[in-house]
Model the fold of this input.
Amino acid sequence: MSTLNKNTVTETVQQVADGSLSCATIVNHYTQAIAQTEKELGAWKYFDPNSAKSQATQLDATNQSGFPIGSLHGIPVGVKDIFDTADFPTCYGSPIYADHQPKKDSRTIEKLKEAGVVIMGKTETTEFAYLHPSRTINPHNHEYSPGGSSSGSAAAVAAGHVPLAIGSQTGGSVIRPASFCGVYGFKPSRGLMSRRGVLQTSETLDHVGVFANHLEDIAVLADALIGYDSEDSATSTTPKPELLNGYQKHISNPPSIVWIDMPYSDRYTSDANDQFEKLLHSLDGNIQRIKAPSNFEQLLACHKTIYDYEIIRCLGAEISNHWESISETAKSVFETAKGRTESDYREAIETRSTAQQWFAEFFNEYDAILTPSAVSEAPLLSERTTGDAVCCVTWTLCGLPCVNLPLLSGKNDLPIGVQMVGAHNKDDSLMHSAKYLLQQMTPRT
Done:
């Protein structure tokens, strides 16, 4: 394996800074990696090697001129094709927007450019970042799904096409594909990363997310994207957590970690459940186990109600004017979603608020929750599904930070991730807890 694939992004950036590695060399390495396996993998909607090389040349010139360089200088990144890009088409996973060319970058792209990345292109997404599968396959076994909706981003990182990628999560669209593809995935607290210029399907539930092959890289990339944006009302000017500081903080005392037996645990496959039980046994003494409150089951329906109500309104123009271009998968869901009333929606929003208050008090006692990232290994492509998102929706609903840790394997030798969940706006503490857990375990290689 190339040293570049083993390096953290901080190590690579340092090599660029001291002149022992050029951005052009980095881009050439990953361009070759994409060329070798992309035809069968299908992770990319748009990939332009000439653009990548041009960006690398400019970044090398900046470095040689003596100017300070960004935290991700020269690092190749893949971007989910729901983020507006002025340099690439943005199709939102739908034929309705074939070759659609935005006039300006999303805030995420602006922040990436400021950090000095090389944007390699746009990664495949499911239709409207929802249920209908993309063409991407799982790099570990080509008969299986990579998950969704950030399918191309997770697969591209897992396949070594890029060290970092951008995704989004409204249900489980970062954590679940990260689990299926065996990479680190992170969804921050709601309001830390701007969603300006990103396809909106739910103002309440949409989050930006990131993928990497190292937990430290997750922290570095997240720090580069966090910030206030006056055009996203979920963001604020309040002080922000610094994730790399949380990751690097000395572990003087073990964090307080709790496993919650969730009301949907009967949906775990027997194989996955065995792996989770073995994990808990190995952590005996370092983790507490409790039963979920009875009202947790309501949160699943609450999430679905909010998602249904808001996606119909966010995609109103597409549904009204381009119904024939929408997949049968989405049509059936949209037809049901149209039945959600404003009364249903308001009740769900109130339930969400109550749950958020409960978690705020809960995290006064605990540092992190340990929970499955998904109910199973990746499903077969023939099942035409991106997998069950049930393990993610409670945390997405409440806007809590979550990270997938690629720690386990199943009976098909496919990855099974475990998820850590932290307190809202304590994403740095979550990185600290996740690093502690990794020190107790040996991640899947």
About this structure: The longest strand covers residues 402-409. The chain has one domain: 1-445. The radius of gyration is 21 Å.
